[in-house]
Every structure is written in structure tokens, then in C-alpha cells.
Specification:
- Two copies of one chain form a homodimer.
- Chain A has about 350 residues and is an alpha/beta fold.
- The first copy, chain A, is about 35% helix and about 15% strand.
- Chain A is built from ten helices and 13 strands.
- Chain A has a five-stranded mixed beta sheet with strand order 2-8-7-6-5.
- In chain A, helix 3 packs across helix 4 (about 110-120), helix 3 (about 85-95) packs across helix 6 and helix 8 (about 260-280) packs parallel to helix 10 (about 335-350).
- The longest helix of chain A is centred in the C-terminal third of the chain and has 24 residues, at about 260-280.
- The first copy, chain A, starts with about 25 loop residues before the first strand and ends with a helix.
- The mean pLDDT of chain A is about 95.
- At the A-B interface, helix 1, helix 3, helix 4, helix 6 and helix 7 of A face helix 1, helix 3, helix 4, helix 6 and helix 7 of B.
């Protein structure tokens, strides 16, 4: 009896940021966008003929792929879309990292990477970022089964330039390199153009951050036809329709509204710069951010205690109880008003 | 150079039914519902505050789980939801079938099952259904690594009764049994009540068929807390948010509108009965269907040729060029009008 329990998968899952059900909180803990999605995306949803939801979504989500291809100046065959960039990157791990050597990613980075390695039984090594949280390029110039670099990195907020990626690829012609650009629109430089130069480069992105569509789950990847076709085959061995019809419609409208995109991204960058200056003026060390969040520390205070204090004041930020970064907090850039509330509360806390 | 190509996953994907881009077709090839979703679901989408799509979906899609739990008379901890039932069943394969013995499913069944086995390296055996396309219970009374039975089965349309499932489970206490009830609402009897009796039973369902929401990708599973918690852990090791915010909202509204659900299901059953009688009157063998499609053959005609003829007349049905069933077609039950067009075309073809 109950032998079936021996065959159950035993695994430690990823734990996402806290989703409080409280109202009237200042929510700066999940790197969500403080501004609504493009009015064009909202309109696409309202005007979608919901009666036709009885049909399966468009095969291969083609309209969305076309819109992304057009935005990035690549061909449709170079674009893959999925149910959020987590879905896309997970499929990429499963599709590309089947060698015997360990894959490499930084010790301080997106905490889902080791979870996917455990899920797919992929060996991995985590070269340490330096004391300034910079990725050490030389650590990735050795034999490996694949490389994953988030650029900008999270939660550090630091972006490496395109020459860094070019150098990385020029050494690593024997393994697939994934550059995870979830945050690139907030001040980083995309390396999508290098996809034409390197057939083994996959660049991933998301509509959850700069496009304010976290609730719709849209992620994408851009790469050579060789890589994209493998992603498609693995995806189609799992679930034929991962992006639903409303997400396709809203995603197309969102990416076509360049003006709104540029204006909200600019606002976030301005608020981030203000927030960074104010925090530094209060004695915080704040890393130079190319993202919609800042990573900050303060030698003079117990940062975890500050995190708990802010929570009690209904200001939610993120604290990671992890080696090397347990004296830092990650704070999402909100609206000017939200950031002012945050800064006022921190001022009170620091002043105590 | 290019050694990375050796580590790419090489796999033969599932091929979904043809999605024609032609307008004015009679689309009876994908088992979609001919009626729109519940007006309550449509209203939930139109009235959803799309501005809040900037937030991630509700953690664990809790409102949707609650609505499903309430409909089926189980607890929330007994419900799992995913991005269509393909996502749910794929996760179940990955979560439960990690033993050394082969899993069992019928030789004639949903063609995604062997694809998932290849994806997750699961051994499988396919006991033959009998000459009347009935599943032979005794074939499943042997040592195995798991069992998957679609009930009603597809593409045969035949439903086994609840005693069949009870008998199956009473023998198989050592492996997880999945009953895939994608089509059960059209005349089958759900075995959800057996979940309270058997901790190793998982029942899966979908909003794509009887709830007309194929475009939104909502699937679910009902089972013991032991099984559901493993599904959650594996899901959360892959993608934290698989069901998007609009799908949660529309799904809740859909399942709460029992009246609309009952009325559209009744209409489809009536049309199916009419269609079955008419086809039989024209000399077709039509299996007794408990689904929203019929499985039909005709000794006097070349069925593949009829399938091609109908396609040329813009009437799309499904033909499988597979052993044992290559003289059958699967025809989705449409509206009365669509079915009349189909029958008129078949009459012309048979009369030729």
C-alpha cells in the first residue's frame, strides 16, 4: 500500500515575493510597474470579442511574435513567446542544457535559476560576483555546459555593457548563452543585435516590468532559428497554447505603443534617480541601478529591522536572508508619491 | 565550434488540430464549443480593472481554486489549477511518474500522452482497447508505474461508468491513477467523489470544452492533499504564475454561472443526438458519444476522401492517419446550423 508515494517528485520550490492581501499598502516588493499598462493594451482587452474565446488561441501566438519581431528588427522565426519569462527561461534550460558539464551563473542572481537546475537535474556552478557585485568575466572563460547571465543583474541592479556580452560569447562558442534582459528597458543596453552574430545566444525578455503586464504573463526570447526551433519543439511537447488569446491581443497593442512605453520608462528612471540621491543623502550605499529597483545598504542600521519597520507602516520592500546580501534591501521604484512615503518612513526610522 | 548543438533537446512534438486562417469555415475539427462563454465571464473580462494588470496574478490563483472547490464540493487544498489541462496533466506526469515500471494508457487515446512520456523519459505501455473501442479493465490489473485514462476517451467518445473507475482504483493502490475528464460534462459521470476514497486518484478537467474558454487556457485537477501539494511544489519550481489575472476572473464568473453552463451543454447533447441519428441513417457507424464530438466510420466510402471533400467545401473535421482508426473521422458537435451544413455536404458526398 502507498508505494505510489515513493514515486512522487520531491522538490523545494521557488518562493515568490510576498503578495499581501492588505489594501492601501505601498507595494515596492515585486518589481512591478507603478503605472498602468498602455491604454492601447487596455483598449485591446475591452474591445476583444470575448465570444471568440471559445476558440483555441492563434497557433504559435503568431501576431504577438510578429509585433515583437518588428519592434526588435528581427524575423518572426527568431522569436519565441511564452507564459511569462519564467516559462521561457525554464523551457530554455530544459532545451539547451543537456550536456554533462555544469552550467554557470553568478552566485548573486535571480533565485529561480538553481530551482530550474534542480527540476531538470542540471549541474551548476555559481562564480562569485566581486565585492562591488560586478560579474567577473574571466570566471566564465572555462569549459561549461551553458551560461545564464541576467543583464541587468537582479537583485544587484547592475548592468554590464554590450562589449561584455560580446566578449563572453566570443570565448564561449561551445555552449548556449542566455542573457536574461527582464530589466534592460530601464537603462541597460539590449544585446539583441548580437543574435545575428552568435547562433548560440538567446536573449530573453518580459512584458511584466517595463510594459506593466505582469498580470497577463507574457515573456519572449530572441535567438537564432536553430535555438528557437528547439524551444518550439520542446514547448509543443508540453503545452501547445501557452499564451492565451487576450494576452496575445494586449501584448500586440502594448508593444506597438512606443510613445507610452518611452514615457513611463522615463518617469521611472527619473524617480529612481531622485530616490537614489535621497537615500545616499541619508547615508545609504545604493548601487548604480539600470533597473526599476534599487539595491541599498546602510552600515549604521540593522537593515532587516528597517525592512520589518517599513512593513509595519504598510510599506513593502524586499529583503533576502541570503549570504553576502543579508545587509541589503531591494526597493522597487514606485510613483513619486509612493517613493516619498517610503523616504519619509525611512527618514523617521533612521532618525530614531 | 558548435558543440552546443550536441546538447540541444531533440524531440518530436505534438501536432494540434489544423487552425485554418480562412473565414466562413465550419470549424468542427478542434472540439471547441459552438456557443460563446457565459455572459458573466465576458462581463468579468470587460469590467476587469485592466489597470491592475501591472500586478502579478493572485498568488496560487486562489479565487479560481475556491470557485472550483465550491462547484465540486471539495476543499481548496484539493484543487490545482494550470494553464489549460495540458499544462496540468504534463505537470502530473512529471510529478507522479518517477518509478521504474512503465505507466499504462490505452492504445487509442489522447495523442499527447506518449509525447509527455518522451519529454520526461517515462516508460509506457498501451493496452489495446477492444474491437468496440472499450477499455479492457483487466489489462490495468498488473504492476505498473501509473495509469492514465481519459473518461470519456478521445477520440472514441466512449465513457466508462464510475464502477469501472472504482474497480480500477481498488486494484491499483500502488500507483497514481489520473482520470482525464476533459469531456465529462457532455454526458459522462465525473468520478470526483472517489477522490475522498482514494488518495492516489487525480481527476483533471478543463474550461476549454464545456465552458467555451479554450482561448483563456484554464485547466484544473482535483485530488488528495498529498497529490495536490506535490503538483504545487513542481509547478512552483517551474513558473509561479501560470494562470493569468483575466483567466482567474473569467474562470470564477464562468463556474459560478451554472444555469448558462447547463443550458449550453444540453443544447450540444441534443444536437449530438440529432447528428448521430442522421449519420446512422446515412449508413455510418457512430459510436455512442458522451462528449461534444462523434467518432464515425462508413464501410461503403473512403473516409479520408470524404474528409478531404468536406475540407474543400470549407467544412473542417478531424482525420487521424493512425493504426486501427484510419477509417474513422472525429466530428465536433457544432450549432444546429453548422451540423446541418455538415450533414448536407455528407449527403451530397455519399450520394455521388
Amino acid at each position: 500500500m502507498n508505494n505510489w508515494k515513493n514515486n512522487l517528485r520531491n522538490i523545494e520550490p521557488y518562493v515568490p515575493g510576498e503578495q499581501s492581501k492588505e489594501k492601501n499598502i505601498v507595494k515596492l516588493n515585486a518589481n512591478e510597474n507603478p503605472y498602468p499598462p498602455s491604454p492601447m493594451a487596455v483598449k485591446a482587452i475591452k474591445e476583444y470579442c470575448a465570444d471568440s474565446l471559445r476558440f483555441y488561441p492563434p497557433a504559435d501566438a503568431t501576431p504577438l511574435k510578429q509585433a515583437i519581431a518588428s519592434f526588435y528588427g528581427v524575423n518572426v522565426e527568431n522569436v519565441f513567446v511564452g507564459n511569462g519569462s519564467d516559462d521561457v527561461i525554464a523551457l530554455a534550460f530544459q532545451s539547451f542544457f543537456n550536456g554533462s558539464e555544469p552550467i554557470l551563473f553568478p552566485d548573486i542572481t535571480y533565485s529561480f535559476y538553481p530551482v530550474w537546475c534542480r527540476l531538470f537535474n542540471i549541474d551548476y556552478e555559481t562564480p562569485a560576483v566581486d565585492d562591488n557585485f560586478r560579474i567577473v568575466l574571466d570566471d566564465y572563460k572555462k569549459s561549461n555546459g551553458g551560461i545564464v547571465i541576467p543583464n541587468p543583474n537582479a537583485p544587484t541592479s547592475i548592468c554590464e555593457n554590450i562589449d561584455f556580452v560580446d566578449d563572453l560569447l566570443s570565448f564561449n562558442s561551445d555552449s548556449v548563452v542566455i542573457i536574461d534582459e527582464a530589466y534592460v528597458d530601464f537603462g541597460g543596453v539590449s544585446c539583441v543585435e548580437l543574435v545575428k552574430k552568435y547562433e548560440n545566444l538567446l536573449v530573453t525578455g518580459t512584458f511584466s516590468k517595463s510594459r506593466s503586464l505582469a498580470g497577463l504573463r507574457i515573456g519572449f526570447a530572441i535567438g537564432s532559428k536553430a535555438l528557437i526551433s528547439v524551444l518550439e519543439a520542446v514547448k509543443n511537447s508540453y503545452n501547445s497554447y501557452t499564451v492565451d488569446s487576450l494576452s496575445v491581443a494586449a501584448g500586440v497593442a502594448s508593444i506597438n505603443d512606443r510613445e507610452y512605453f518611452n514615457s513611463t520608462v522615463s518617469k521611472i528612471i527619473n524617480t529612481r534617480n531622485y530616490m537614489t540621491n535621497q537615500l545616499r543623502a541619508m547615508g545609504f550605499e545604493v548601487l548604480d541601478s539600470s533597473t526599476n529597483f534599487v539595491f541599498a545598504s546602510n552600515k549604521n542600521i540593522d537593515i532587516k529591522d528597517m525592512f520589518e519597520y517599513l512593513k509595519s507602516k504598510k510599506v513593502f520592500i524586499r529583503y533576502f536572508d541570503l549570504p553576502r546580501i543579508n545587509n541589503y534591501v531591494r526597493i522597487t521604484v514606485g510613483t513619486d508619491r509612493e517613493v516619498q512615503i517610503l523616504l519619509d518612513e525611512i527618514k523617521k526610522y533612521v532618525g530614531d
